[in-house]
Amino acid sequence: MQSLLRPLVLALAALTGLVAPATPLINAADREVLALNGRWHVIVDPYDNGYVNYRLQRFDEATKPSGGYFLDRKPATPAELIEYDFDTSASLNVPGDWNSQDDKLLYYESTVWYRKRFDYTPRAAGARQFLHFGGANYEADVYLNGAKLGRHVGGFTPFEFEVTGKLKPTGNSLVVRVNNARRPEAVPTVNTDWWNYGGLTRDVRLLETPATAIRDFALRLQPGADRRVRGFVQLDGPGQPVTVEIPELKIAVAATADAAGRATFEFALTGAELWSPESPRLYAVTLTAGADRLTDRVGFRTIETRGADILLNGKSTFLRGISLHEENPLRGGRATTPADARQLLGWAQELGCNYVRLAHYPHNEHMARVADELGILLWAEVPVYWTIHWDNADTYANAENQLTELITRDRNRASVIIWSMANETPISPARTVFLKKLVAHTRALDPTRLISAAMERHSPADDPSTSIVEDELAEVTDLVSFNQYIGWYVGMPDDCAKAKWIINYNKPVIVSEFGADALQGLHGDRRARFTEEFQADLYAQTLTMLEKIPQLRGMTPWILCDFRSPRRHLPNIQDGWNRKGLIGENGTRKMAFGVLQEYYARKAAAYA
Ligand code: GCB
């Protein structure tokens, strides 16, 4: 949205209460005055009985919405008929998916109503309050004290509603209808290779700010020897003086926000140590605007490409990566906490990684923050996966919105170096128009990071051993990334030895996926599918094959841990799990883990 329009939209949102602001307050954790995590009462409502009446009319659009569960009512007299009761219903943990918390909900794909009661007295006179949701899969209708606050679509990005003047000192009822039904026109569409975890899967918080709030900011180190930082602070209130301070560097700069609430900054980052995987240096940054004050920890680094090289702080780097789903492998549910992020990213570091692909949708904010601390570079992506409806304007708007919410949330994370537009999308004119539009949108929002997409290879009909990567999209991305499964979906691992690659782009090549299923503990011949030996051999042969690509500058094999997938049916082997993990369901490393670890040790030495 253009910044000039933003105040108007915000004013409208405040007026009607039904539109979520374009971007939620940045760094919500710093604003939290009340955690709304913990147990929430839930009603599992497969027929949406609390949402629509028997004529399929929505209660929240009716003048007398008496049947809506969001009213959170109790019978006033014993004679009154009310056929639900949150107080005596079951409860679930938030943040968390419902599937892994109750066996009956493992495959559930419909509506669950969540209800939390809380008390709150504003801390300061004139303060504003916001209800902030880290994410809810897939769509959420939110109600406070019986009135609708609004709706959010998209399962992996944050949203919030201003509730200033709507809170009571005691007994607030916050009700959220979460629905995770898959829909063809949605993002993602109906077919994915991951579990459709539903629910309030991320932190829920009550935030408070003074009347004029710092809504957003970005501070970015510009490439070049003079180490200049450019950036902005966006207020959602009238223009006033804004300061940016980095006390450790004795930096304090001031600017005045314009009528649209935007203050721009440029200053020299004198004396700073740059952020890198070897030395993930973060600086405390404090922003002040009138009575509002926001703190964050920010790393400064540059990322560029030159020909086939990736330059991190000007130095050529090889991205020693692994792909990850946002799933706790041991619990088999969504990863939700900083501890979950530390476990996954810690295992990646043990493997020798300096880089991780957060597949296939925006992961929770803890991931990028922990990666910032540990020194792990990140690829972040949106669920434009496989066969999206390329011709549908709403589908495009939805994808663009998810991307905007992701970029806005994470653009101050030094760890994030790549925004990825899509995964394995079939080439067609409509698809390429759609994705190029996303690329242009991303460059406008964040000109300082690399743009990619997981593309595909193909072979000429008469020459199966030649792999060609050719995609019009690669002309506008900074990296040429593709997934390839020679040895698993295409032929056998021995075919790697014959493979020839044609990649006519003078850009860094990042192999975004390769892999093979192996059941941890299953041993046998290296040609026997699903054995650890097969997977280890595929890794060894693939790594040798990929070394033949002169522009190769990184990879994220598929995948760190086995993960749940409803597409994987082989009894006693898969049992609902994709077994391409290097780590099994119980945390045990498979043989291929060691193969990749050894390769990465050599790569680290070569690029030291
Ligand atoms: C892919 C997809 C990934 C799947 C993987 C597989 O190409 O991008 O989401 O899980 O293959 O295991 O088939």
Short description:
This protein is 16% helix and 29% strand.
Provide a descriptive summary of the structure in words:
The chain has 608 residues and is α/β, with parallel strands linked by helices. It folds into three domains: 6-209, Jelly Rolls (Sandwich), CATH 2.60.120.260; 224-301, Sandwich (Immunoglobulin-like), CATH 2.60.40.10; 305-606, TIM Barrel, CATH 3.20.20.80. Helix content is 16%, strand content 29%. It is built from seven helices and 34 strands. Mean pLDDT is 95; it is low at 1-20. Bound molecules: (2S,3S,4S,5R)-3,4,5-trihydroxy-6-oxo-oxane-2-carboxylic acid.
Break the fold down into its secondary structure elements and pairings.
Elements: H1 6-16, E1 32-35, E2 38-44, E3 91-94, E4 111-118, E5 128-133, E6 139-144, E7 147-153, E8 159-162, E9 172-179, E10 204-209, E11 214-221, E12 228-235, E13 241-246, E14 251-256, E15 262-268, E16 283-289, E17 292-298, E18 303-306, E19 309-312, E20 315-316, E21 319-324, E22 327-328, E23 333-334, H2 338-350, E24 355-358, H3 365-374, E25 377-381, H4 393-410, E26 416-423, H5 429-445, E27 450-456, E28 466-468, E29 480-483, E30 500-502, E31 509-513, H6 532-546, E32 552-555, E33 563-564, E34 577-578, H7 591-606
Parallel strand pairs: 21-24, 21-32, 24-25, 25-26, 26-27, 27-29, 28-30, 29-31, 31-32
Antiparallel strand pairs: 1-10, 2-3, 2-4, 4-9, 5-8, 5-10, 6-7, 6-9, 11-12, 12-15, 13-14, 13-16, 16-17, 18-19, 19-20, 22-23, 33-34
Helix pairs in contact: 2-3, 4-5, 6-7
Bound molecules: (2S,3S,4S,5R)-3,4,5-trihydroxy-6-oxo-oxane-2-carboxylic acid.
